[in-house]
């Protein structure tokens, strides 16, 4: 019997490493910000920061990570009270899966923290110089490296990203609902449905009305008037309702806990998600889950 080999495909391939830093910011640290043609993430090991991503300010606390897409202007602001410790890694990667991380604020598990620790440990051996230099423009190889160190850095980084991807993006969102769309009939209705479809595609993100207007090439007053005339609620009100309706379907499916659902739908915290859920449904997520279980038992 002849044996046949199979090709193992890389879902996430790290092409080149640009920077690898682990350092403690001074509590009054000031950085002018930058944009560059490769991916970067910042992970908070201790303390808190405010990350700038484009025009957004995103608070990050211990155990949270934020990804910056290529050519996105970004910056880090400290609060003047504590000196945060950060892991910052930038790299070239053309794998389409990376775009799921765009502007995502995610939580890192203990296992993923250990993988980051391995990257830092290997990096301290592979590269010369200190790892707490945020202005370093080029990594320099150490003349004495452990065998396979460069390869392990690449593999650990891919493993870290795959682990995050599996937790947040491998489980598909519930199927789309048709209840938000209106019957076609004229250009206004078609435009309305185009905006609704756009909202569905961005259901996992934190959208502002300014971003919707920019991406849909609509003025703010035009967009608001469109939803007043065609729909039954404002555009942001509909977007929040779509998120909660999606959360309800995810709770009924029972594959994720409340924290994972909140993360998948772009909520900044489980507490904010719970408040928004109760505001929409007049019950908390746990009360809703209990009501579903009670109905199932009675059936």
Q: CATH superfamily membership of the largest domain, which one?
A: Regulatory protein AraC
Could you tell me the radius of gyration in angstroms?
A: 22 Å
Round the mean pLDDT to the nearest integer and report it: 89
Return the domain count.
2
Helix segment tally: 9
CATH class of the largest domain: Mainly Beta
- Count all strands and give the number: 8
Secondary structural class: alpha+beta
- Helix/strand order, N-terminal first: EEEEEEEEHHHHHHHHH
How do the strands line up in the largest sheet? 1-7-2-5-8
Low-confidence stretches: none
Strand content: 15-25%
How far apart the termini lie comes to 55 Å
Q: Could you please say which CATH topology of the largest domain applies here?
A: Jelly Rolls
**Spatial shape:** globular
Largest sheet: 5 strands, antiparallel
Helix content: 40-55%
Task: Quickly give the CATH architecture of the largest domain.
Answer: Sandwich
């Amino acid at each position: 019997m002849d044996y046949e080999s199979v090709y193992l495909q890389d879902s996430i391939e790290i092409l080149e490493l640009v920077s690898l830093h682990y350092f403690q910011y001074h509590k009054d640290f000031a950085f002018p910000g930058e944009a560059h043609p490769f991916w970067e993430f910042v992970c908070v090991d201790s303390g808190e920061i405010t990350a700038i991503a484009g025009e957004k300010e995103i608070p990050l606390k211990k155990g949270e990570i934020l990804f910056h897409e290529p050519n996105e202007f970004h910056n880090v602001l400290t609060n003047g009270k504590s000196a945060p410790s950060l892991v910052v890694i930038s790299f070239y990667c053309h794998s389409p899966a990376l775009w799921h991380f765009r502007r995502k604020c995610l939580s890192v598990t203990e296992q993923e923290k250990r993988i980051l620790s391995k990257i830092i440990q290997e990096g301290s051996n592979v590269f010369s110089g200190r790892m707490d230099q945020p202005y370093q423009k080029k990594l320099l190889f150490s003349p004495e490296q452990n065998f396979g160190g460069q390869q392990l850095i690449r593999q650990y980084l891919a493993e870290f990203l795959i682990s995050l991807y599996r937790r947040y993006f491998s489980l598909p969102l519930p199927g789309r609902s048709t209840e938000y769309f209106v019957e076609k009939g004229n250009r206004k209705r078609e435009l309305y449905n185009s905006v609704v479809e756009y909202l569905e595609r961005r259901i996992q993100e934190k959208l502002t009305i300014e971003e919707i207007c920019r991406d849909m090439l609509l003025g703010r007053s035009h967009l608001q008037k469109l939803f007043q005339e065609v729909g039954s609620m404002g555009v942001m009100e509909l977007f929040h309702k779509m998120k909660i309706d999606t959360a309800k379907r995810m709770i009924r499916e029972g594959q994720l806990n409340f924290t994972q659902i909140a993360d998948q739908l772009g909520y900044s915290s489980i507490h904010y998600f719970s408040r928004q859920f109760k505001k929409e449904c007049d019950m908390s997520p746990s009360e809703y889950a209990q009501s579903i279980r009670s109905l199932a038992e009675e059936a």
